[in-house]
Amino acid sequence: xxxxxxxxxxxxxxxxxxxxxxxxxxxxxxxxxxxxxxxxxxxxxxxxxxxxxxxxxxxxxxxxxxxxxxxxxxxxxxxxxxxxxxxxxxxxxxxxxxxxxxxxxxxxxxxxxxxxxxxxxxxxxxxxxxxxxxxxxxxxxxxxxxxxxxxxxxxxxxxxxxxxxxxxxxxxxxxxxxxxxxxxxxxxxxxxxxxxxxxxxxxxxxxxxxxxxxxxxxxxxxxxxxxxxxxxxxxxxxxxxxxxxxxxxxxxxxxxxxxxxxxxxxxxxxxxxxxxxxxxxxxxxxxxxxxxxxxxxxxxxxxxxxxxxxxxxxxxxxxxxxxxxxxxxxxxxxxxxxxxxxxxxxxxxxxxxxxxxxxxxxxxxxxxxxxxxxxxxxxxxxxxxxxxxxxxxxxxxxxxxxxxxxx
Length: 407
Fold this sequence. Notes:
carboxylic acid transmembrane transporter activity, transmembrane helix, MFS, transmembrane, MFS transporter
């Protein structure tokens, strides 16, 4: 096949729908932190109580993603990648529409949990499907496109959060997801999965990841290399308005604007990390480079004082850029395991990282009472980056690996 035709295969309908699915996924996922202040204020939660309410709601969402990651990942290996892709889109769309009608924090928490449960399935299914249908020397282009288009959904969420009432924002997020379901016509299942499901090999055995030392080691390393991304997003960016006065920022800081700058950076970082991975022929080198850039960004964020809001937002954009190895991170997880466990791993790994947010948040809140915002961020951030660096050193290189194998 000519090279031009092979490259056009990256722009197939399957890759396009997977990319738009992740766009809606990230739009809905980040809509909550963007809308947290106006929604909680409208529900009568004011002042310091908002931080506690935010923690509870975010934790409910992330626990939902943790449990949903297991459910959708196993379903993807047992029933097919498309079952997960469209089932997850349907659930989080309905849940986000329901978020528009809440009138108490208890129902808010319930629907954030169910939205998180649904959101858990889309990325893993998309990356697994795209990785298996594209030639191995082109799949990083497909997964990079999925991640870049998807993460740009958070920029759209920032605009919606800025110009629309919070209830209308949730309605739009859910409506986009339901509209995307119409596009599923014509999407084909992975040929690797169709071949493997007739082989008699056990599929989607989540517990098998914990009964073999080699698989468990690979699995844990895949999870831990992603921790710095969510430390940056959940602590430094989502709480940017609370950090700003403690860092001497000379002016007010808006949460939605901070998130938009961060995810604009992540979008650019996703593109750069994927293309750089292809150019260098290595996943590990790219993750190592972006971790180093992220450490530099975090140290600057916590160490510099007296920035104007514009420079503060620019620094948040740098944090997003350096955390933009998310596309390569998820691709590594998909490439580390065989077809019979690939969906389970690719779906649970990013969601276990997201599910670690309650632990990161609890650690931050614990040290905050003793060391303050900045001191706590230093401690928790150092732990996340140290775990990621050690885990990366133990991972095998997977660039160009043939994925047609089973565990």
